[in-house]
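Give me the fold.
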Amino acid sequence: MARIVIFGGHGKVALLAAPLLAEAGHEVTSVIRNPAQADDVIAVGARPLVLDVETASATELTDALSGHDVVVWSAGAGGGSPDRTYAVDRDAAIATMDASLTAKVSRYVMVSYFGAGPDHGVPEDNGFYAYAEAKSAADAHLAASGLDYVILRPSGLTDKPATGTLEWGVGVKASTVSRGNVARVIAAVVDAGSTASESSTATGRVLEFNDGDRPVSELVAG
């Protein structure tokens, strides 16, 4: 059993991941900004924690994370202002990584996007540029942080039913993936890390994927 904190706890992916984690025996705390969302979080088996990651201090974040085993970052500004995108998707995410180290939470699962990285290729005049830059910077900080990490890079998200099957690997290009399948990958990564040895291939990895026909378990196993 792991004690897990999900940032972006009222997001569509988080609301699908929380019950999977709870059913597997994990203790889930979902961080939300709006207290009115608490009942939705409770309904899926998680404990709500009201905290605005955009304005929370390092001490507040550390206190929130203390005593937990895994952080899942599934939060985001949701587009709009580039300034807010940088504030949430880059700066707040990085702040939670630093707080994880201070709180001695060794494992961190980042939900990023397919194609993130220094060579994301999004032009500066594109509305997606701030998001691409922010996510790429957050991913790079995580990889260099010393945390035991997995970076998930799903393709364009859909609300199609979860199939539990994906595609990935050399030559696979960005397409689409259901939020339900992303939730299943989160749950599988957490479970794999909970039972893994130090040499496990379930950690220190970047996983890019679309919907496909191969089981989630194969992606996580490596």
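The helical segments are 12-23, 38-43, 58-65, 82-102, 129-143, 179-194, 216-221.
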